[in-house]
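hey
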């Protein structure tokens, strides 16, 4: 949506330290789906002169709290708040709906450890 609006400087605020640190490339992604989402976002970075990912402690995130209340109450969207309904994942749906690949599992493969006797 920011690209479509022609935004050139973008500040992204989130209350998830995990997400923000992964987007800032300070932490590695450990899940294939999250890796794909991060790569998708990083591809969009070239559309901006600058982009910052900022962690906001949940207790101090009044803007997100206000937006979540609007979304959950179905009240009228205030002027200046942009909404985009997303009906499909922005990463490949083959990965989203795919069951876990057993070859990626790590641990003891003995029947007693996996719960299969």
């Amino acid at each position: 949506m920011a690209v479509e609006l022609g935004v050139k400087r973008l500040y992204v605020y989130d209350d998830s330290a995990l997400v923000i640190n992964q987007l800032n490339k300070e932490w590695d992604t450990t899940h294939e789906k999250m890796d794909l989402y991060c790569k998708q976002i990083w591809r969009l970075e070239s559309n901006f002169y600058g982009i910052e990912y900022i962690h906001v402690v949940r207790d101090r995130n009044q803007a997100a709290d206000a937006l979540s209340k609007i979304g959950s109450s179905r009240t009228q969207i205030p002027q200046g708040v942009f909404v985009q309904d997303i009906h499909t994942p922005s990463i490949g749906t083959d990965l989203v709906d795919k069951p876990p690949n057993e070859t990626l599992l790590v641990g003891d493969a003995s029947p007693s450890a996996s719960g299969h006797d």
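The helical segments are 17-23, 32-44, 62-73, 93-96, 111-114. DSSP finds five helices and two strands in the chain.
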